[in-house]
């Protein structure tokens, strides 16, 4: 696939890191909160970048956009996160043009997720696009690309069983609790934080443990009250966290903080305590393991569950890849058409000018010249000529860039500049 550019010198890049090579600690350093993403996009705009998406989830942080060199995007990511360029280079990936487009399709359709077929990412991609559009840094290329990825995602969901069965990080955490905590129905469970994974875990806990002793705490109590009301849970104030930890058997942490919110100084219980940290960056300090009665499990360990469900899902990967290929081909065709549309438009204008000059000349020279009829015939010929050129440019076996140059040269076309 050819070079897609907004200007002569910029290409489309994806730069980022994911769970594949970067552990939770490193991902934590590069994670971007809402404010950082907004500031990063504004800075990119000042630098003349006119199309950029920023996504940051517990599994990955990525920038997708146009740049003259990928280092422009790498520097933006490092400037607005806590990671350094050296650390980035150790675990990162950089994709360009076609590879970058393919990567975004795989990510957005759950094929690159930590748990295969996890479609959580598509709503995050929609949010990323919404943010960029609001800030005026989402060009037609990005809009069309994101919509194509959403379309592929919907088709894969509807036409394959790649997301069948219950498999997600929240499901895996509940499975872990069920397998490792005896008499779970009578144990005290405390959920700290109301992030999306935390909410889903909470729902799964209620469903699978039949436990009436689940307590919820969040920094902003209104959010906790909302969820507590929905699931009929006990809600406590943030100030009661230490006292509640003392009473609990299982602590699930799903806060969105950039630094640990739970450390050994908060824990005074002598009973066995299982802590599940479902946050990136890590929200539970490793120093809790200095306490003999505490065991700690992080999101990355939970994501390693491979069960029958996952094995079954793998069977549908080829079908999903076929769907991606179809939708991606439509996108590529649109892109090619978009690339030569200005030339075809200018050619049409040039031919119309020639036609009008000729009709004007003939009407003065020939008596009873039928201008109207001649106009209809000329327009049909112009239509046929431009169609021939368009079909030629669509032909994948030719170098469309050279052809475009030649057409412009032969007809001395002046393209409209935005």
> Could you name the CATH homologous superfamily of the largest domain?
Glutamyl-tRNA reductase, N-terminal domain
- Counting DSSP E segments of at least 2 residues, the number of strands comes to 10
| End-to-end Cα distance | 25 Å
- Shape by Cα distribution: elongated
CATH architecture title of the largest domain: 2-Layer Sandwich
**Count of helical stretches:** 16
**Unreliably modeled segments:** 1-8
Question: What count of domains describes the coordinates?
Answer: 3
Helix-strand layout with pairing:
Elements: E1 11-18, H1 24-30, H2 34-46, E2 52-56, E3 60-67, H3 70-80, H4 85-91, E4 93-96, H5 98-108, H6 120-134, H7 140-159, H8 169-180, E5 189-192, H9 196-209, E6 214-217, H10 221-231, E7 234-236, H11 241-247, E8 250-253, E9 273-277, E10 294-298, H12 299-302, H13 308-314, H14 317-365, H15 371-394, H16 400-410
Parallel strand pairs: 5-6, 5-8, 6-7, 8-9, 9-10
Antiparallel strand pairs: 1-3, 1-4, 2-3
Helix pairs in contact: 2-3, 5-7, 6-7, 7-14, 8-9, 14-15
